[in-house]
Amino acid sequence: MRSYFPVIGALGLVLMLFGLVMAFPLAVSYFLDDGAIASYDEALLVTFICGLLAWVTTRHQRRDLRIHDGFLLVAATWIVVPIFGAMPLMLYMPALSFTDAYFEAASGLTTTGATVLTGLEYLPTSINLWRTFMHWVGGMGPRRCVRNASPAPRAGCGR
Question: Which of 17, 25, 43, 118 is the most exposed place for a label (fewest CB within 10 A)?
Fold first, then answer.
């Protein structure tokens, strides 16, 4: 029987890191006093705690990730992280459906750039920052993977 504990533990670490990323728009919301502080407080707390629970419950089940674990981890990350990325949007805009909020988060994290929201200029600065920050976070993952897989840095090129 296959053990998925290492994948769940790694996903927990990803969620904890993603929760900490929410601190940046939280700080912006705090300094601008744009009314979205509670949305980020709750989303950050829920995301970090869910990640912590996933990591703590699986930390004693140690083994190296295998290739099939890597595929599962990537798929789970692309499915689960947008759920937590959608939380600040849903908490600030209660009329926004889960599907629309998930679409916003997934399009941001995949750097697609599509949106279902209208009246973006009327949203608080921190909410728009969160939407664009998800694009940046989503773009950093593939860029980092390409950089690590490229032979150029190991060959001394690009320094």
Answer: 118
